[in-house]
Amino acid sequence: MAPTARASVLVADRFPNFSICGLPYWLGGEVRDWQQLAHRTVADLDESALRLRLETTATAIDVASKRITARRGDEPAEAIDYDRLIVATGADPVRPRLPGTDLPGVHVLHHMDQAFTLDHVIRERDARSVLIIGAGYIGLEMAEAFCHRGLEVTVVERLPEVLPTVDPGLGSLVRGELTVHGVAVHTDTTVRSIEAAAERLRVRADPDFAEAADVVLISVGVRPNSALLERAGAELGSRGAVAVDSGMATSLPDVWAAGDCVHTHHRLLAEPGYLPLGTTAHKRGRVAGDNAVGGRRTFAGSLGTQVVRVFDLAIARTGLRDDEARRGGFDPLTVACTAPDHKPYYPSAHDLHMRWTADRDTARLLGCQIVGHRDGQVAKRIDIPAAAIFAGVNVDQINDLDLSYTPPFGMPWDALQIGAQAWIAEHLVGHATPTVASRHEQPTG
Ligand SMILES: Cc1cc2nc3c(=O)[nH]c(=O)nc-3n(C[C@H](O)[C@H](O)[C@H](O)COP(=O)(O)OP(=O)(O)OC[C@H]3O[C@@H](n4cnc5c(N)ncnc54)[C@H](O)[C@@H]3O)c2cc1C
After folding, report:
1. Are the C-beta atoms of residues 388 and 397 closer than 8 Å to each other?
2. Pairing between β-strand 106-108 and β-strand 215-218 as defined by DSSP bridges
3. By the 8 A CB rule, do 185 and 163 touch?
4. Quick one: which atom of ligand 1 is closest to the CA of 110?
5. Who contacts 32 (Cβ-Cβ below 8 Å, separation ≥6)?
6. Helical pair 415-429 and 378-391, crossing angle rounded to 10 deg
7. Per-residue pLDDT tens for 23-61?
8. Average confidence (pLDDT) over 5-22
9. Tell me, what's the pLDDT at 443?
10. Ligand 1 center to 111 CA (angstroms)
11. CA torsion angle 40 41 45 48 (round to 10)
Protein backbone atom coordinates (compact mmCIF):
# COMPACT_ATOMS: atom_id res chain seq x y z
CA MET A 1 0.00 0.00 0.00
CA ALA A 2 1.18 3.57 -0.62
CA PRO A 3 2.85 4.61 2.67
CA THR A 4 0.74 7.74 3.11
CA ALA A 5 -2.62 6.19 2.20
CA ARG A 6 -5.09 5.22 4.91
CA ALA A 7 -7.50 2.48 3.89
CA SER A 8 -10.81 1.60 5.52
CA VAL A 9 -12.60 -1.58 4.52
CA LEU A 10 -16.36 -1.88 5.01
CA VAL A 11 -17.52 -5.48 5.17
CA ALA A 12 -21.24 -6.26 5.30
CA ASP A 13 -20.68 -9.55 7.12
CA ARG A 14 -18.28 -10.76 9.84
CA PHE A 15 -15.98 -12.64 7.48
CA PRO A 16 -13.34 -10.50 5.82
CA ASN A 17 -10.95 -12.29 3.48
CA PHE A 18 -12.52 -15.72 3.84
CA SER A 19 -12.13 -18.36 1.12
CA ILE A 20 -15.71 -19.08 0.13
CA CYS A 21 -14.15 -21.46 -2.45
CA GLY A 22 -13.43 -23.70 0.55
CA LEU A 23 -17.06 -23.92 1.72
CA PRO A 24 -17.79 -27.26 0.00
CA TYR A 25 -14.77 -28.78 1.79
CA TRP A 26 -15.88 -27.46 5.15
CA LEU A 27 -19.48 -28.58 4.57
CA GLY A 28 -18.19 -32.00 3.48
CA GLY A 29 -15.99 -32.33 6.56
CA GLU A 30 -12.59 -32.37 4.82
CA VAL A 31 -11.78 -29.01 6.40
CA ARG A 32 -12.60 -29.36 10.05
CA ASP A 33 -12.88 -25.79 11.24
CA TRP A 34 -14.47 -23.00 9.19
CA GLN A 35 -12.04 -20.52 10.76
CA GLN A 36 -9.30 -22.19 8.69
CA LEU A 37 -10.95 -20.75 5.58
CA ALA A 38 -9.62 -17.30 6.45
CA HIS A 39 -6.87 -16.24 4.01
CA ARG A 40 -5.88 -13.80 6.77
CA THR A 41 -7.50 -13.58 10.19
CA VAL A 42 -9.08 -10.41 11.53
CA ALA A 43 -6.02 -10.10 13.80
CA ASP A 44 -3.68 -10.32 10.75
CA LEU A 45 -5.72 -7.67 8.98
CA ASP A 46 -5.82 -5.43 12.04
CA GLU A 47 -2.03 -5.61 12.20
CA SER A 48 -1.78 -4.37 8.63
CA ALA A 49 -2.53 -0.76 7.84
CA LEU A 50 -6.17 -1.58 7.03
CA ARG A 51 -8.99 -0.27 9.16
CA LEU A 52 -11.65 -2.97 9.16
CA ARG A 53 -15.29 -2.11 9.78
CA LEU A 54 -17.16 -5.38 10.06
CA GLU A 55 -20.93 -5.85 9.75
CA THR A 56 -21.10 -2.45 8.09
CA THR A 57 -23.03 -2.20 4.84
CA ALA A 58 -22.49 0.58 2.34
CA THR A 59 -25.98 1.63 1.23
CA ALA A 60 -25.28 4.62 -1.02
CA ILE A 61 -22.44 6.46 -2.74
CA ASP A 62 -22.63 10.16 -3.42
CA VAL A 63 -19.97 10.61 -6.06
CA ALA A 64 -20.23 14.41 -6.20
CA SER A 65 -19.47 14.89 -2.51
CA LYS A 66 -17.28 11.73 -2.28
CA ARG A 67 -19.31 10.36 0.56
CA ILE A 68 -20.63 6.90 1.40
CA THR A 69 -23.66 6.18 3.52
CA ALA A 70 -23.13 3.10 5.67
CA ARG A 71 -25.20 1.25 8.21
CA ARG A 72 -24.20 -1.07 11.04
CA GLY A 73 -27.11 -3.14 12.35
CA ASP A 74 -29.79 -0.91 13.86
CA GLU A 75 -27.41 1.98 14.43
CA PRO A 76 -28.19 5.27 12.66
CA ALA A 77 -26.77 5.64 9.17
CA GLU A 78 -23.28 7.08 9.07
CA ALA A 79 -21.59 9.22 6.41
CA ILE A 80 -18.02 8.28 5.50
CA ASP A 81 -15.89 10.51 3.28
CA TYR A 82 -13.36 9.12 0.81
CA ASP A 83 -10.73 10.40 -1.56
CA ARG A 84 -10.66 7.25 -3.70
CA LEU A 85 -13.14 4.41 -3.57
CA ILE A 86 -12.90 0.74 -4.54
CA VAL A 87 -16.10 -1.30 -4.68
CA ALA A 88 -15.80 -5.09 -4.46
CA THR A 89 -19.28 -6.23 -3.47
CA GLY A 90 -18.99 -9.65 -5.13
CA ALA A 91 -21.89 -11.67 -6.50
CA ASP A 92 -25.12 -13.13 -5.19
CA PRO A 93 -26.41 -16.63 -5.94
CA VAL A 94 -29.38 -16.76 -8.30
CA ARG A 95 -32.67 -17.96 -6.80
CA PRO A 96 -34.86 -18.69 -9.83
CA ARG A 97 -38.42 -17.35 -9.77
CA LEU A 98 -40.15 -20.67 -9.27
CA PRO A 99 -42.83 -21.65 -6.77
CA GLY A 100 -41.29 -22.83 -3.50
CA THR A 101 -37.74 -21.52 -3.76
CA ASP A 102 -38.26 -19.59 -0.52
CA LEU A 103 -39.53 -22.57 1.49
CA PRO A 104 -37.65 -23.61 4.65
CA GLY A 105 -35.05 -26.22 3.70
CA VAL A 106 -34.37 -24.65 0.27
CA HIS A 107 -30.89 -23.12 0.22
CA VAL A 108 -28.36 -21.31 -1.91
CA LEU A 109 -24.64 -21.24 -1.19
CA HIS A 110 -22.31 -18.35 -1.72
CA HIS A 111 -21.77 -16.46 1.53
CA MET A 112 -20.38 -17.75 4.82
CA ASP A 113 -23.72 -17.28 6.62
CA GLN A 114 -25.50 -19.31 3.94
CA ALA A 115 -23.06 -22.16 4.58
CA PHE A 116 -23.66 -22.00 8.35
CA THR A 117 -27.43 -22.05 7.80
CA LEU A 118 -27.20 -25.01 5.42
CA ASP A 119 -25.02 -26.94 7.86
CA HIS A 120 -27.37 -26.14 10.74
CA VAL A 121 -30.50 -27.20 8.82
CA ILE A 122 -28.95 -30.52 7.75
CA ARG A 123 -28.18 -31.28 11.39
CA GLU A 124 -31.45 -29.97 12.79
CA ARG A 125 -33.60 -31.88 10.29
CA ASP A 126 -31.41 -34.93 10.66
CA ALA A 127 -31.42 -34.82 6.87
CA ARG A 128 -30.84 -38.06 4.96
CA SER A 129 -31.26 -36.78 1.44
CA VAL A 130 -30.51 -33.67 -0.57
CA LEU A 131 -31.52 -32.61 -4.04
CA ILE A 132 -29.23 -30.22 -5.90
CA ILE A 133 -30.62 -28.08 -8.70
CA GLY A 134 -27.79 -27.28 -11.12
CA ALA A 135 -24.78 -29.39 -12.16
CA GLY A 136 -22.24 -26.60 -12.52
CA TYR A 137 -18.97 -26.79 -10.62
CA ILE A 138 -20.39 -25.64 -7.27
CA GLY A 139 -23.36 -28.02 -7.54
CA LEU A 140 -20.97 -30.93 -8.22
CA GLU A 141 -18.51 -29.97 -5.46
CA MET A 142 -21.50 -29.93 -3.13
CA ALA A 143 -22.73 -33.31 -4.44
CA GLU A 144 -19.41 -34.77 -3.34
CA ALA A 145 -19.51 -32.88 -0.04
CA PHE A 146 -22.99 -34.20 0.78
CA CYS A 147 -21.87 -37.74 -0.09
CA HIS A 148 -18.97 -37.35 2.37
CA ARG A 149 -21.62 -36.52 4.97
CA GLY A 150 -23.49 -39.74 4.19
CA LEU A 151 -26.46 -38.07 2.50
CA GLU A 152 -28.34 -39.50 -0.47
CA VAL A 153 -27.71 -37.06 -3.31
CA THR A 154 -29.74 -36.29 -6.43
CA VAL A 155 -28.59 -33.76 -9.02
CA VAL A 156 -31.05 -32.24 -11.48
CA GLU A 157 -29.72 -30.35 -14.50
CA ARG A 158 -31.63 -28.58 -17.29
CA LEU A 159 -28.93 -29.15 -19.93
CA PRO A 160 -28.16 -32.49 -21.62
CA GLU A 161 -24.92 -33.08 -19.68
CA VAL A 162 -23.37 -32.19 -16.31
CA LEU A 163 -20.61 -29.59 -15.98
CA PRO A 164 -21.51 -27.60 -19.08
CA THR A 165 -18.26 -25.62 -18.89
CA VAL A 166 -16.62 -28.58 -20.70
CA ASP A 167 -17.68 -30.47 -23.84
CA PRO A 168 -20.50 -32.99 -23.27
CA GLY A 169 -18.13 -35.85 -24.13
CA LEU A 170 -16.01 -34.90 -21.13
CA GLY A 171 -19.06 -34.08 -19.02
CA SER A 172 -20.27 -37.65 -19.56
CA LEU A 173 -17.10 -38.90 -17.82
CA VAL A 174 -17.99 -36.70 -14.85
CA ARG A 175 -21.53 -38.05 -14.85
CA GLY A 176 -20.07 -41.58 -14.76
CA GLU A 177 -17.95 -40.63 -11.75
CA LEU A 178 -20.97 -39.18 -9.93
CA THR A 179 -23.01 -42.28 -10.65
CA VAL A 180 -20.26 -44.65 -9.47
CA HIS A 181 -20.27 -42.77 -6.17
CA GLY A 182 -24.04 -43.18 -5.79
CA VAL A 183 -25.22 -39.74 -6.95
CA ALA A 184 -28.48 -39.90 -8.94
CA VAL A 185 -28.08 -37.63 -11.96
CA HIS A 186 -31.02 -36.33 -14.02
CA THR A 187 -30.08 -34.23 -17.04
CA ASP A 188 -32.45 -32.64 -19.60
CA THR A 189 -34.65 -32.05 -16.56
CA THR A 190 -36.01 -28.58 -15.83
CA VAL A 191 -37.30 -27.87 -12.34
CA ARG A 192 -40.75 -26.27 -12.27
CA SER A 193 -41.65 -26.12 -8.58
CA ILE A 194 -40.76 -27.07 -5.04
CA GLU A 195 -43.51 -27.94 -2.60
CA ALA A 196 -43.57 -28.65 1.11
CA ALA A 197 -44.46 -32.32 1.63
CA ALA A 198 -44.88 -33.27 5.30
CA GLU A 199 -41.40 -32.68 6.79
CA ARG A 200 -39.79 -32.88 3.35
CA LEU A 201 -39.65 -31.02 0.05
CA ARG A 202 -40.99 -32.33 -3.24
CA VAL A 203 -39.29 -31.12 -6.41
CA ARG A 204 -41.20 -31.34 -9.68
CA ALA A 205 -39.50 -31.04 -13.02
CA ASP A 206 -40.17 -31.52 -16.73
CA PRO A 207 -40.38 -34.01 -18.21
CA ASP A 208 -42.06 -36.22 -15.67
CA PHE A 209 -39.81 -35.87 -12.64
CA ALA A 210 -40.95 -35.69 -9.03
CA GLU A 211 -38.74 -36.51 -6.08
CA ALA A 212 -38.76 -35.73 -2.38
CA ALA A 213 -35.70 -34.67 -0.37
CA ASP A 214 -35.03 -33.34 3.12
CA VAL A 215 -33.02 -30.40 1.82
CA VAL A 216 -32.79 -28.68 -1.56
CA LEU A 217 -29.73 -26.74 -2.69
CA ILE A 218 -30.15 -24.38 -5.63
CA SER A 219 -26.89 -23.90 -7.49
CA VAL A 220 -27.73 -22.28 -10.82
CA GLY A 221 -25.13 -19.53 -10.98
CA VAL A 222 -24.50 -16.06 -9.63
CA ARG A 223 -25.32 -12.54 -10.63
CA PRO A 224 -23.06 -9.56 -10.00
CA ASN A 225 -23.88 -7.54 -6.92
CA SER A 226 -23.68 -4.25 -8.80
CA ALA A 227 -26.73 -2.45 -7.34
CA LEU A 228 -24.71 -0.11 -5.10
CA LEU A 229 -22.68 1.24 -8.02
CA GLU A 230 -25.64 1.22 -10.38
CA ARG A 231 -27.59 3.45 -7.97
CA ALA A 232 -24.57 5.76 -7.84
CA GLY A 233 -24.77 6.12 -11.63
CA ALA A 234 -22.02 3.73 -12.78
CA GLU A 235 -22.25 2.26 -16.24
CA LEU A 236 -23.04 -1.45 -16.34
CA GLY A 237 -21.54 -3.96 -18.79
CA SER A 238 -21.91 -7.65 -19.57
CA ARG A 239 -24.72 -9.42 -17.65
CA GLY A 240 -25.35 -6.40 -15.44
CA ALA A 241 -21.82 -6.37 -14.04
CA VAL A 242 -20.11 -3.03 -13.51
CA ALA A 243 -18.25 -1.80 -16.59
CA VAL A 244 -14.58 -1.08 -15.90
CA ASP A 245 -11.59 -0.21 -18.07
CA SER A 246 -8.36 -2.20 -18.07
CA GLY A 247 -7.21 -0.29 -14.98
CA MET A 248 -10.47 -1.27 -13.19
CA ALA A 249 -11.76 2.31 -13.19
CA THR A 250 -15.54 2.60 -13.36
CA SER A 251 -17.31 5.33 -15.32
CA LEU A 252 -17.50 7.34 -12.07
CA PRO A 253 -14.66 9.69 -11.07
CA ASP A 254 -12.26 8.27 -8.46
CA VAL A 255 -14.20 5.02 -8.20
CA TRP A 256 -12.63 1.66 -9.08
CA ALA A 257 -14.28 -1.74 -8.87
CA ALA A 258 -13.01 -5.34 -8.84
CA GLY A 259 -14.01 -8.94 -8.24
CA ASP A 260 -17.27 -10.68 -9.04
CA CYS A 261 -19.21 -7.40 -9.29
CA VAL A 262 -17.42 -6.30 -12.48
CA HIS A 263 -17.33 -7.60 -16.02
CA THR A 264 -14.21 -9.39 -17.27
CA HIS A 265 -12.05 -8.61 -20.23
CA HIS A 266 -11.51 -11.87 -22.12
CA ARG A 267 -7.99 -12.01 -23.48
CA LEU A 268 -8.86 -14.04 -26.60
CA LEU A 269 -12.24 -12.57 -27.42
CA ALA A 270 -10.94 -9.06 -26.70
CA GLU A 271 -14.32 -8.11 -25.31
CA PRO A 272 -15.92 -8.10 -21.89
CA GLY A 273 -17.84 -11.05 -20.55
CA TYR A 274 -18.70 -12.23 -17.06
CA LEU A 275 -16.34 -14.78 -15.49
CA PRO A 276 -16.74 -14.68 -11.71
CA LEU A 277 -13.69 -16.56 -10.44
CA GLY A 278 -11.47 -16.17 -7.40
CA THR A 279 -8.34 -16.16 -9.55
CA THR A 280 -9.39 -13.13 -11.57
CA ALA A 281 -10.93 -11.44 -8.52
CA HIS A 282 -7.55 -11.43 -6.79
CA LYS A 283 -5.71 -10.05 -9.81
CA ARG A 284 -8.23 -7.33 -10.49
CA GLY A 285 -8.34 -6.34 -6.83
CA ARG A 286 -4.60 -5.78 -6.99
CA VAL A 287 -4.92 -3.67 -10.13
CA ALA A 288 -7.71 -1.56 -8.61
CA GLY A 289 -5.80 -1.13 -5.35
CA ASP A 290 -2.58 -0.06 -7.06
CA ASN A 291 -4.33 2.39 -9.34
CA ALA A 292 -6.45 3.91 -6.57
CA VAL A 293 -3.21 5.09 -4.94
CA GLY A 294 -1.68 6.44 -8.12
CA GLY A 295 -0.38 3.30 -9.88
CA ARG A 296 -0.72 2.47 -13.56
CA ARG A 297 -1.38 -1.24 -13.54
CA THR A 298 -3.65 -2.93 -16.09
CA PHE A 299 -5.52 -6.23 -15.98
CA ALA A 300 -4.14 -8.50 -18.71
CA GLY A 301 -7.44 -10.29 -19.27
CA SER A 302 -8.90 -13.63 -18.32
CA LEU A 303 -8.94 -16.95 -20.15
CA GLY A 304 -11.48 -18.48 -17.79
CA THR A 305 -8.90 -21.00 -16.59
CA GLN A 306 -10.51 -23.22 -13.98
CA VAL A 307 -10.35 -26.62 -12.36
CA VAL A 308 -12.72 -28.63 -10.22
CA ARG A 309 -12.47 -31.92 -8.42
CA VAL A 310 -15.39 -34.34 -8.50
CA PHE A 311 -14.60 -37.40 -6.40
CA ASP A 312 -11.58 -39.04 -8.08
CA LEU A 313 -11.66 -36.86 -11.19
CA ALA A 314 -10.14 -33.48 -11.85
CA ILE A 315 -11.65 -31.43 -14.67
CA ALA A 316 -9.97 -28.33 -16.05
CA ARG A 317 -10.28 -25.94 -18.93
CA THR A 318 -8.69 -22.80 -20.27
CA GLY A 319 -9.50 -20.54 -23.20
CA LEU A 320 -12.32 -21.28 -25.61
CA ARG A 321 -14.21 -24.40 -26.60
CA ASP A 322 -14.96 -25.00 -30.28
CA ASP A 323 -18.39 -23.34 -30.23
CA GLU A 324 -17.12 -20.36 -28.25
CA ALA A 325 -14.16 -19.88 -30.59
CA ARG A 326 -16.46 -20.02 -33.61
CA ARG A 327 -18.78 -17.42 -32.08
CA GLY A 328 -15.69 -15.33 -31.37
CA GLY A 329 -14.84 -15.16 -35.08
CA PHE A 330 -12.14 -17.86 -35.19
CA ASP A 331 -12.12 -20.86 -37.52
CA PRO A 332 -11.34 -23.51 -34.92
CA LEU A 333 -10.38 -27.14 -35.22
CA THR A 334 -10.94 -29.19 -32.07
CA VAL A 335 -9.25 -32.55 -31.64
CA ALA A 336 -9.93 -35.09 -28.93
CA CYS A 337 -7.02 -37.11 -27.60
CA THR A 338 -6.35 -39.52 -24.75
CA ALA A 339 -2.91 -40.14 -23.25
CA PRO A 340 -1.62 -41.55 -19.94
CA ASP A 341 -0.81 -39.10 -17.15
CA HIS A 342 2.49 -40.95 -16.54
CA LYS A 343 4.42 -43.95 -17.77
CA PRO A 344 1.94 -46.85 -17.85
CA TYR A 345 4.55 -49.29 -16.47
CA TYR A 346 4.66 -47.25 -13.27
CA PRO A 347 1.66 -48.04 -10.99
CA SER A 348 -1.52 -45.97 -10.96
CA ALA A 349 -1.31 -44.48 -14.42
CA HIS A 350 -4.63 -43.09 -15.66
CA ASP A 351 -5.77 -41.64 -18.92
CA LEU A 352 -6.00 -37.92 -19.45
CA HIS A 353 -8.89 -37.08 -21.77
CA MET A 354 -8.20 -33.88 -23.66
CA ARG A 355 -9.75 -31.52 -26.17
CA TRP A 356 -7.40 -29.20 -28.02
CA THR A 357 -8.84 -26.22 -29.86
CA ALA A 358 -6.73 -24.07 -32.17
CA ASP A 359 -7.25 -21.82 -35.13
CA ARG A 360 -7.10 -23.69 -38.47
CA ASP A 361 -5.35 -20.86 -40.27
CA THR A 362 -2.67 -19.91 -37.79
CA ALA A 363 -2.53 -22.95 -35.47
CA ARG A 364 -2.78 -20.43 -32.64
CA LEU A 365 -3.83 -22.26 -29.51
CA LEU A 366 -7.31 -21.16 -28.39
CA GLY A 367 -8.35 -23.62 -25.74
CA CYS A 368 -7.76 -26.86 -23.90
CA GLN A 369 -9.93 -29.09 -21.72
CA ILE A 370 -8.63 -31.96 -19.62
CA VAL A 371 -10.32 -34.62 -17.52
CA GLY A 372 -8.14 -36.99 -15.57
CA HIS A 373 -7.55 -38.67 -12.25
CA ARG A 374 -7.26 -36.39 -9.25
CA ASP A 375 -3.62 -37.51 -8.87
CA GLY A 376 -2.88 -36.83 -12.55
CA GLN A 377 -1.77 -33.23 -12.01
CA VAL A 378 -4.63 -31.96 -14.14
CA ALA A 379 -4.73 -28.63 -12.31
CA LYS A 380 -1.10 -27.84 -12.97
CA ARG A 381 -1.14 -29.34 -16.47
CA ILE A 382 -3.93 -26.97 -17.59
CA ASP A 383 -1.69 -24.09 -16.57
CA ILE A 384 0.66 -24.97 -19.44
CA PRO A 385 -1.88 -24.30 -22.22
CA ALA A 386 -3.15 -21.36 -20.12
CA ALA A 387 0.33 -19.83 -20.16
CA ALA A 388 0.76 -20.75 -23.84
CA ILE A 389 -2.49 -19.04 -24.85
CA PHE A 390 -1.55 -16.01 -22.77
CA ALA A 391 1.74 -15.78 -24.65
CA GLY A 392 0.17 -16.38 -28.09
CA VAL A 393 1.98 -19.70 -28.59
CA ASN A 394 0.85 -21.95 -31.46
CA VAL A 395 0.16 -25.66 -31.13
CA ASP A 396 3.43 -26.77 -32.70
CA GLN A 397 5.41 -24.71 -30.18
CA ILE A 398 3.82 -26.74 -27.37
CA ASN A 399 6.08 -29.56 -28.62
CA ASP A 400 9.14 -27.35 -28.17
CA LEU A 401 8.42 -26.67 -24.51
CA ASP A 402 11.01 -28.20 -22.23
CA LEU A 403 8.67 -29.95 -19.80
CA SER A 404 9.79 -32.17 -16.95
CA TYR A 405 9.71 -35.97 -16.92
CA THR A 406 10.09 -38.86 -14.55
CA PRO A 407 8.06 -42.11 -14.90
CA PRO A 408 5.81 -41.63 -11.81
CA PHE A 409 4.73 -38.17 -13.01
CA GLY A 410 4.88 -38.02 -16.79
CA MET A 411 6.39 -39.16 -20.05
CA PRO A 412 9.22 -37.89 -22.25
CA TRP A 413 6.54 -36.38 -24.44
CA ASP A 414 4.13 -35.14 -21.82
CA ALA A 415 0.45 -36.03 -22.37
CA LEU A 416 -0.07 -32.40 -23.30
CA GLN A 417 2.48 -32.63 -26.08
CA ILE A 418 0.82 -35.81 -27.32
CA GLY A 419 -2.40 -33.79 -27.42
CA ALA A 420 -0.68 -31.06 -29.43
CA GLN A 421 0.71 -33.67 -31.81
CA ALA A 422 -2.76 -35.15 -32.27
CA TRP A 423 -4.04 -31.70 -33.21
CA ILE A 424 -1.24 -31.21 -35.72
CA ALA A 425 -1.79 -34.65 -37.26
CA GLU A 426 -5.47 -33.97 -37.65
CA HIS A 427 -4.82 -30.52 -39.06
CA LEU A 428 -2.46 -31.99 -41.66
CA VAL A 429 -4.99 -34.58 -42.72
CA GLY A 430 -7.37 -31.65 -43.17
CA HIS A 431 -10.49 -33.47 -42.12
CA ALA A 432 -13.68 -31.50 -42.58
CA THR A 433 -15.13 -32.82 -39.34
CA PRO A 434 -14.28 -30.47 -36.47
CA THR A 435 -13.84 -33.04 -33.72
CA VAL A 436 -11.99 -36.30 -34.14
CA ALA A 437 -11.13 -38.75 -31.42
CA SER A 438 -7.65 -40.19 -31.56
CA ARG A 439 -5.53 -42.34 -29.36
CA HIS A 440 -1.80 -42.10 -29.64
CA GLU A 441 1.02 -44.51 -29.17
CA GLN A 442 3.01 -44.37 -26.01
CA PRO A 443 6.34 -42.75 -26.54
CA THR A 444 9.40 -44.67 -25.46
CA GLY A 445 11.63 -43.51 -22.62
C1 LIG B 1 -18.80 -22.50 -3.11
C2 LIG B 1 -17.89 -21.69 -3.98
C3 LIG B 1 -16.76 -22.28 -4.52
C4 LIG B 1 -15.90 -21.53 -5.34
N5 LIG B 1 -14.79 -22.15 -5.83
C6 LIG B 1 -13.93 -21.45 -6.61
C7 LIG B 1 -12.74 -22.06 -7.08
O8 LIG B 1 -12.46 -23.23 -6.80
N9 LIG B 1 -11.92 -21.33 -7.89
C10 LIG B 1 -12.21 -20.02 -8.21
O11 LIG B 1 -11.41 -19.39 -8.92
N12 LIG B 1 -13.33 -19.40 -7.75
C13 LIG B 1 -14.20 -20.09 -6.96
N14 LIG B 1 -15.33 -19.47 -6.47
C15 LIG B 1 -15.60 -18.07 -6.85
C16 LIG B 1 -14.85 -17.12 -5.93
O17 LIG B 1 -15.11 -17.45 -4.60
C18 LIG B 1 -15.28 -15.68 -6.21
O19 LIG B 1 -14.95 -15.39 -7.55
C20 LIG B 1 -14.54 -14.68 -5.28
O21 LIG B 1 -14.85 -14.93 -3.94
C22 LIG B 1 -14.97 -13.26 -5.64
O23 LIG B 1 -14.36 -12.37 -4.74
P24 LIG B 1 -15.04 -10.97 -4.42
O25 LIG B 1 -14.13 -10.30 -3.44
O26 LIG B 1 -15.38 -10.26 -5.66
O27 LIG B 1 -16.43 -11.32 -3.73
P28 LIG B 1 -16.74 -12.04 -2.35
O29 LIG B 1 -15.69 -13.00 -1.98
O30 LIG B 1 -18.15 -12.54 -2.48
O31 LIG B 1 -16.71 -10.82 -1.29
C32 LIG B 1 -17.63 -9.78 -1.39
C33 LIG B 1 -17.65 -9.08 -0.02
O34 LIG B 1 -18.37 -7.86 -0.14
C35 LIG B 1 -19.19 -7.69 1.00
N36 LIG B 1 -20.26 -6.77 0.62
C37 LIG B 1 -21.21 -6.96 -0.34
N38 LIG B 1 -22.00 -5.87 -0.42
C39 LIG B 1 -21.55 -4.97 0.49
C40 LIG B 1 -21.94 -3.68 0.89
N41 LIG B 1 -22.97 -3.05 0.30
N42 LIG B 1 -21.25 -3.07 1.89
C43 LIG B 1 -20.19 -3.67 2.47
N44 LIG B 1 -19.76 -4.92 2.12
C45 LIG B 1 -20.44 -5.54 1.15
C46 LIG B 1 -19.64 -9.10 1.33
O47 LIG B 1 -20.04 -9.16 2.68
C48 LIG B 1 -18.35 -9.89 1.07
O49 LIG B 1 -17.55 -9.90 2.22
C50 LIG B 1 -16.20 -20.18 -5.64
C51 LIG B 1 -17.34 -19.58 -5.09
C52 LIG B 1 -18.18 -20.33 -4.27
C53 LIG B 1 -19.41 -19.68 -3.69
Report:
1. yes
2. parallel
3. no
4. 53
5. none
6. 50
7. 999 999 999 999 999 998 888 888 887 899 999 999 999
8. 93
9. 44
10. 7
11. -70
CB 363 within 8 A of CB 328: no
* CA 281 / ligand 1 centre spacing (Å): 8
- pTM, rounded to two decimals: 0.94
Q: How many CB atoms lie within 10 A of CB 329?
A: 8
Q: Give the whole-angstrom CA distance, residue 105 versus residue 400.
A: 54
| Probe residue for ligand 1, chosen from 11, 26, 56, 315 as the CB with the greatest number of ligand atoms within 8 Å | 11
DSSP string, 213-275: ESEEEE-S-EEE--HHHHHTTPPB-GGGPBP--TT-B-SSTTEEE-GGGB-EEETTTTEEE--
What letter represents residue 257's amino acid?
A
Quick one: which atom of ligand 1 is closest to the CA of 23?
A: 1
DSSP 3-state assignment of 173? Answer: helix
- Annotate 317-376 with DSSP letters as a single string: EEE--HHHHHHTT--EEEEEEEEESS-TTSTT--EEEEEEEEETTT-BEEEEEEEEETTS
Q: Is residue 335 a contact partner of residue 438, using CB atoms and an 8 Å limit?
A: yes
Q: How are beta strands 67-71 and 78-81 bridged, if at all?
A: antiparallel
Helices (H), 125-188: 137-148, 168-180
Ligand 1 pocket, CB under 6 A: 10-13, 20-21, 23-24, 57-58, 88-90, 109-110, 138, 225, 228, 259-260, 276-279, 281
Q: What is the mean pLDDT of residues 227-232?
A: 98
pLDDT bracket for residue 3 (50, 70, 90): low
Percentage with pLDDT > 90 across the chain = 90
pLDDT in tens, 111-123: 999 999 999 999 9
Instruction: For 143-156, write each residue's pLDDT tens digit.
Output: 999 999 999 999 99
> 359: which DSSP letter?
E
Residue nearest atom 28 of ligand 1, based on CA coordinates: 90
Question: Cα(414)–Cα(399) distance, rounded to whole angstroms?
Answer: 9
Given this model, what pLDDT does residue 439 score? 43
pLDDT at residue 432 tops 90: no
- Quote the CA–CA distance of 10 and 1 in Å, as a whole number: 17
DSSP helix/strand/coil, 146: helix
DSSP letter, residue 125: T
Kindly compute the dihedral angle of the four CA atoms of residues 182, 157, 373, 142, in this order, to the nearest 10 degrees. -70
Q: Which of 140, 139, 212, 123 minimizes the C-alpha distance to 174?
A: 140
From residue 24, alpha-carbon distances to 246, 248, 388 in Å are 32, 30, 31
Please state, in angstroms and rounded to a whole number, the distance separating the CA atoms of residues 429 and 6: 62
Identify the pLDDT of residue 136.
98
User: What is the side-by-side strand order in the sheet with 57-62?
Assistant: 57-62, 67-71, 78-81
